Amino acid sequence: MDESIQTTRHLLDLCRRSTRQGRWLFSAFLTPAEQDDFLKAPESNGLSFHFWGGTEDAERRILAAGSEEESGPPSYPLSLIRVSPLSLRFAEKLCHPDYLGALMNLGMERSMIGDLLIREDCAFFFCLSSSAEFLVSGLIRVRKTSVEAREIFDAPPELAPRFQDLRFSVASERLDSLVAGFTGLSRSQVPPLFSSGRVFVNSRPVEDRSLRLKSGDILTVRGYGKAVFDGITGETKKGRLAVLLKKYC
Questions:
Q1: CA-based angle 103:153:144, to the nearest 5?
Q2: Model pTM?
Q3: Contact at 8 Å (CB) between 178 and 193?
Q4: How far is CA 50 from CA 15, 61, 74, 225, 235, in A?
Q5: Do 65 and 48 contact (CB within 8 A), yes or no?
Q6: What is the C-alpha separation between 20 and 208, in angstroms, rounded?
């Protein structure tokens, strides 16, 4: 059975069991694609649930199955972890794959961990609370940098997403035109990005270069970053379309 179908069936079952048992039930972290698959399933209509990832803008979120009217406010089984170097003097410049690789090397499943955000010399991520103690004690090194992982209980202001407006013009709304503008590559350099599986829309790999994005869609090009498509904002004097992307910093 296709993995996406299995995931959707599991989430539907979670919602139905929550109704029968009269209590909140929670999934592991879901990708945007998995969330979208569930929402598109006709059987999800009428069920009581919502998604939550620790912050309003979280991309990876858990499904909370239940109703506040019947079960009261949910107590989400999530913990926030802050990872910082033991010594700034000897710390490497670490990036998202470095931290994620260190977590995976501990034997963690990706579904146990939510969004991972890099802020200056620190990293923050949400995880399922059942894994928090293990991660705090086990995450002691990222690459060659000794680090301290600590659970924190109040989300700091720096967790708010940061964006950089990216404006450019394109000849058409085709995805390959947007990818060229986003990456700074020529149109002739873009096809290999699609054929090698490096272009994603809402966490789904995309091969259709003629696809049109909707406002709010998340475009990811591996090696170049991630951005929210804010739409076509107008037309230039030469008849080209003005595009606004909000690139994650």
A1: 30
A2: 0.79
A3: no
A4: 10, 10, 11, 28, 38
A5: yes
A6: 42
Q: Quick one: average pLDDT of 21-44?
A: 94
Alpha-carbon gap, residue 197 to 249, rounded angstroms: 23
Summarised one tens digit per residue, pLDDT across range 70-124 is 999 999 999 999 999 999 999 999 999 999 999 999 999 999 999 999 998 999 9
Identify which of 163, 154, 159 has the alpha carbon closest to the alpha carbon of residue 122: 159
| Neighbour tally for 45: CB within 10 Å | 7
Contact 24, 64 (CB under 8 A): yes
Mean pLDDT of 38-45: 94
Q: Which two tokens stand for residue 80?
A: 């926030």
pLDDT one-digit tens code per residue, 6-23? 999 999 999 999 999 999
| Contact yes or no for 62/51 (Cβ under 8 A) | yes
The residue type found at 82 is R
Tokens found for residue 74:
């949910």
pLDDT at 158: 83
Residue type, 49: F
Q: Which of 44, 57, 31 is nearest to 202 (CA)?
A: 31
